[in-house]
Amino acid sequence: MEKVLKVENITKNYAAKKAVDRVSFDLYDGEILGLLGPNGAGKTTIIRMILNIIAPDGGKISFSNFSIDDKNRMGYLPEERGIYKDTKVLETIVYFADLNNMPPEKSKEKGHYWLKKLELEDYANNKIDELSKGMQQKVQFIISIIHNPELLIVDELFSGLDPVNQDLFKSILEELVADGMSILLSSHRMNMVEELCDRIFLINDGKRVLYGNLNEIKNNYEQKKVEITYNGNDNFLKGNINISNYNAKSNKASFYLNNPENLNTFLDDLSNNIDIKEISITSPSLHDIFINSIKGGVASE
What we know:
Layout: E1 3-14, E2 17-28, E3 32-36, H1 43-50, E4 58-63, E5 74-77, H2 89-99, H3 104-117, H4 133-145, E6 151-155, H5 163-178, E7 182-186, H6 190-196, E8 199-204, E9 207-213, H7 214-219, E10 224-231, H8 235-238, E11 243-249, E12 252-257, H9 263-273, E13 275-282, H10 286-296
């Protein structure tokens, strides 16, 4: 696949703090790349450098089909929501489309299309201030994609949305990618990232922690998650040095197996000490990997 965006060894300093420290990653054509990290990790700084709002102190950002100054080829939904409150919905959409060199008649047509798709067509002539927070978020999303950008950057798209609208936006992102758009998705909603992204880039304290194919990261993770239903005494589990994060209630327990390469030996020992009724062994969720990686902070491919 073609690289739409290439970020090479970029850095950004604010006084004595290194906000972004030698970060590199690629975004491919028709891909959703998850940009993850705790608050203050450097995600927003990276996004602002990609958008040329601020310049990196070192490194290089390049695009395959346009220059960094060609902003109408990009779309951006910021985490900080904010559009003109006293203007009407469709007028606002058309205004921002005009800023991206879109003819008024075409922007009106596309505006009506997206308002209908996002169940806002009855509010086209309402003022922004008359809409709920979730509706305003939908309008701002329309503004970010009305001009059909090649690269879309969305920051916390799912924040504040109910499950129905989370699923709606998830399906729309999937449709946009199927039509060839490339998306950089910054989010704290790990379940949505798992469902939408093939690859992730995890940053903490300005440095890369994890980068690569999500399934490979999960499969190669140093721990496996085990859940069991059992009868008997669980002292064998409580004192086992190969187990961490042990939690038990009634006759159910969950824990991490720290040395999955010894899985068969562990299962033999387990069955000799406990009457197992059910057992599940899986790779950790992205949520668990996120928490453990941030605590450890070790860079990995």
